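Many introductory courses stop at the sequence. We go one step further.
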Amino acid sequence: HGIRARAMMLSLAVACAASARFAPVQHRGLAVVRGVSMSDKVQEVVETMEPETSAPSPMDPPPMGPARSKSVPFLNQPKALDGSMVGDVGFDPFGLSNIDGEYINLKWMREAEIKHGRICMLATAGWLAVDFGIHFPGDKYDGLTALNAHAAMVKSGDMFVLLAIVALLEARMGRLIFDKSHKPGDYSFDPLGMGEGDPEAELKELKNGRLAMIAFSGIVTQSALTGKGFPYF
């Protein structure tokens, strides 16, 4: 019996020693896990390498969204209208500036805007001049108003002369539109030197042209509805 008791005690001691060998313990700054030792310094380096995640502070500014149009603040600013062109205020509710074809693109549209603005400035001045009684000399122009002048000019044949002049100008200048080096609206016609290389003068022309397009549409509509001359009511 004494021999058997001693053997049992020896087996118990071996089992305890084996379990202690593989159990995690803390001893003199060492972490022992399954027989692998790692010093506290190494643990600190590993912990600093792990990415830190922190909740956003309530004082942080909110993420920036798309830029808003200056002219229509509740709409996003069109991508093509970045403010580099004179008179650009981000006004494009129909998204026409997004058209980027070989011939019809933003440059072509700016050319059309300037040309229509210039024509309407002349047309508005001409319409008012006729209604104020300023006519070409000749009996056939007597009694004409701006509203019925078009039909009278077609009947007399004068309108075809005007169309021929316009066709020659378009044939001469229209080809410049598709020249990559051509600046929209620049036809080297500035006999008084009022706007050469002057962004402020270009802006004034553009604004007056936009206003003239609206004004001429309103004058013609009001004149046609009332059948009366200036002030058209």
